[in-house]
Amino acid sequence: MSFVGFRRFTLLLFCCLSFVAGCGYRFAGTAENRITTGQSLWVAFIGNETISPTAQTVIRRALYEECHAMRGLYPAGKESEADLRIRGKLTSYTLKAISYSAIDRVKEYRLLISVDLELLRKGGAAPVWKGTVQAGQDFPASTDLALQHNAEESALQAASSTLARNFLELVEQAY
């Protein structure tokens, strides 16, 4: 390669890199959106715009549990001491019959939850991540109301754990 060819190649490479850097492109998993082990976490009480009296508590607990299990975060004593803060609002809690028996009785339900969540870092007013996370879980129907209630509560716990895992993945995959 001659000196002129090398110079053109260098100039072309510089222009390409300048264009990529100038358009705001960055790699996923940067320090901005990476959740590191050992940080403290505060999950504020989840607002509830639905008919479920307990869903927001189950979701909050699932966020703490999954953040600890998947990323090694620990609960902060107070919101002001937390390295990371999660705020949210339960916007949808839906039960749908998804299968029926031969005599037209419900055999199975699907629970769907949708939560608007945002993650903030200590000292930051703007969220690191903000969006809607959804999850669902199927559960069997029962003619016994106590069994039906227990099945729905178990489905809510499973859906909340899935929602928390989805939240962590979405935060870390955000561009």
List keywords for this structure.
175 residues; alpha/beta; six-stranded mixed β-sheet; 3 helices; 6 strands; elongated
Question: In words, what does this structure look like?
Answer:
With 175 residues, the chain is α/β, with parallel strands linked by helices. The protein contains three helices and six strands; from the N terminus they run αββαββββα. A hairpin with a 7-residue loop joins strand 5 and strand 6. The radius of gyration is 23 Å and the shape is elongated. The two termini are 38 Å apart. The model has no long low-confidence stretch (mean pLDDT 88).
Q: Please state the overall shape, judged from the principal axes of the Cα atoms.
A: elongated
The secondary-structure class comes to alpha/beta
* Total strands: 6
Task: Report the helical percentage.
Answer: 25-40%
Number of helices: 3
Q: Separation of termini?
A: 38 Å
Report the order of strands and helices.
HEEHEEEEH
Pick out the low-confidence regions: none
Major beta sheet summary: 6 strands, mixed
**Strand residue percentage:** 25-35%
The whole-angstrom Rg is 23 Å
Average pLDDT for all residues: 88
